[in-house]
Description:
By secondary structure, this protein is of the alpha+beta class. The protein is 21% helix and 29% strand. Strands 15, 21, 22, 26, 27, 28, 29, 32, 33, 34 and 35 form an 11-stranded mixed sheet that branches. 55% of the residues are buried.
Amino acid sequence: MIRQTSVAGSVASFVQTSISIACVIGGMTVPASGQQIADPIARPTDLHCEYLTNPLGVDAARPRLSWRLADGRRGARQTAYQLYVGTDSLAVSQGKADQWNTDKITAAQTLLTYAGKPLKPFTKYYWRVDTWDKDGKKNQAAVLSRFETGMMSDRNWQGAWISDSRDVATKPAPYFRKAFQTTKKVRSARAYIAVAGLYELYINGQKIGNHRLDPMYTRFDRRTLYVTHDVTAQLQSGKNAIGVLLGNGWYNHQSTAVWYFHEAPWRNRPAFCLDLRITYDDGSVETIRSDKDWKTALSPLVFNSIYTAEHYDARQEQANWNKADFDDAKWKEVIYRATPSENIVAQVMHPIRAVEQISAKSVKKLNDTTYVFDLGRNISGVSQINVKGNAGTTLRLKHGERLYDNGHVDLSNIDVHYRPTDKSDPFQTDIFILGGRGEETFMPRFNYKGFQYVEVTSSKPVELTQASLTGHFMHSDVPPVGRVQTSNPTIDKIWQATNNAYLSNLFGYPTDCPQREKNGWTGDAHIAVETGLYNFDGITVYEKWLADHRDEQQPNGVLPSIIPTSGWGYEWGNGPDWTSTIAIIPWNIYLFYGDTKLLADCYDNIKRYVDHINEQSPSGLTSWGLGDWVPVKSKSPVELTSSAYYFTDVSILAKAAKVLGKQADHAYYTALASKIKAAVNSKYLNKETGVYGNGLQTELSVPLMWGLVPEELKAKVAANLAKRVEADNNHLDVGLLGTKAILNALSENGYGDVAYKMASQETFPSWGWWIVNGATTLYENWPIDAKSDISMNHIMFGEIGAWLYKALGGIKPDPEQPGFKNVLLQPIFVSGLNRADVTHNGPYGAIRSAWQRNADGLAYDVTVPPNSTATLVLPLANGANVYENNKPLTVSSPEIHLLESTTRQSGQYRLQAGTYRFTIK
């Protein structure tokens, strides 16, 4: 898997990489042309536990173990495997296991659920897998991986929940510390910390780890997360000290906005529980725990809000507060607090990090006390300033997405929902009071913002240069797994802007925007889920967020429109067009990963949700929902779009029932889906003309994409949609729901060229219109000068990022063999584009679909990963022929099988694993 320190940097490097250069993805080399690259030794690679590499603190009693097969030969596949799990690394490396030995199993399976002896807490387990290749040969090079269990049960915690007070109005963040001694040689040490709020952990003055904003946001009174850290290297012989700094996060929301997070039922002063478990060389174990022996004091972080900003007074710093020799005699005792929830579980997921550091592109000095920095791009995250000045000098760092004509930062597009009670908490404005100790550095700890510009205003003149301020792009650090490169620079920039918007809205849960709200809007998330999964390995984030769904669901099945929530959103903004997340996201995880766990975990929740709608709308039609949000100009009926999503949810439930072996449910919900489909078509479809409603883009494309159109009328409805788009000058006339459907409805029904014309437009309204006007992320509204709904970093119109894979690359998962076990390949060689190179790294490895026009016709390169197959459909215009290695493809070969449906207009083939070059002429 490609892994880079900078995700945004990797996006940029993907764009800049020439297709003539081979790249290494997923443990195998992906060539730029059709030449065969042979790996003489097939071997397992990319060993993961719970979709992470060597994770710490695993709580799952039966964790999932997975791997890929590295084998570049054609027809590469795994014919058998044997998996070993044990506590002795040497024994496991030698093929011995005291926990689980599967014996040799004849199967191509590469995802297993642990089924050995019961796992014990606080234990490191080693595992390896042996594989046999297509020729029955066993791999020679064993790869050893590991995972380590965490608490496994609430009963194993020894620490107490402690805080400094119960006063939610106290503004300064609290410090906590405890000194202790080690008298023996330390073999290993683990810190387990559960927090209501946010934290930074220190051992002997050193900050532990590079995560930001831990733990992830949950419904705190129903589920609390803990994080495990390896702190072996930070402990020293003799005196030691632990330091903890707590932040408010969403737990003690002191800022006031329309969603009432300041009135959340869980709200309290931040608290934590910590066990530092030390294992000594002699095998003895000592646990340093949170209890009444700890001391606390207020910190220089005098205010922190996840929503607005942070205020820091460097004059109040206490040097070495987190070191062993610090005198804490003036600090006070901690207090005990009740546990925030009865469900303390491990945070096992890709963390939030400051992934990329961005230097200011320019700085403009407006006067002696005001500077405006421009990062050159819109990001989520924080800024860092280095400055020298007198003690007490106050700097205000205002972060925004745009500027007024006079050069000052303009917040008018993003502060619309903020409801401050006074002027002490300015929106997106950090306040830094200098300590007067030479050059000082400030960067927020418990906040993030959405911004491109930073206006720095000081109470006294200070000297700043372009190098004085940098931006830090923060987001869940999900590995990139996709690449799109074309001959159209605007399309490439749209893809990059879509990814930047997606990442800017991924903070342990998918959000709508990183500045105005930071809310987990459900509609935005299910619209963008395919875009996310084609581009990033996001399963750990989605599994966590769907657990949030289960926490928030009412007994009657109703879900709120934002998740997590303090209680807002159960009465507005929800409905099947938004809260279909409960069905659509688990189904897509199943399609992309071939893993049924999330689908099974959410099955009863999907069922309760669907049953509630059925009870409320026995006719099969429902008007519950927001409808086609923020349309260009035409608004489609809410009943049509909401009923379409209701149909989609029921259809997914029926398919999930079949997958999970619930035959009675499968039959019942299949019939219910048919009833909804008939009701929608009875009211909205004119069968004579093939027009839904008034024939608007959304009215036609939503039924097409989601499968409501009768088979015999698809061609007529699709033709009407193409005519409607042409009548709209090949431009968009849709809102959120139509944006998801329009490109797919066209390209999946024979109008790929029309879809591409729409996707590549550079005039209003279009994605390209944003790009040519300087966008580096996606916007919330099609008009750049709209009076409302004009966040400049939104993901809700991001379906185009997935469409590039599905249409130009033609890469889709096969529902019959999910997880890309069989890849559906149906590229569209659209007019107006000369080249497209699309790669997705799925569970089996790299899938590549790349085409380029040349003087002789068209060259098409394909890579099918080891242990999988592909069903390839090639368009053959004007009776063109297909060649492979300059030989006509007229008969089947061992690796390429002609399907019976092959015609003069469509070449259809079943491909074995390997790399191919086809030419069409």
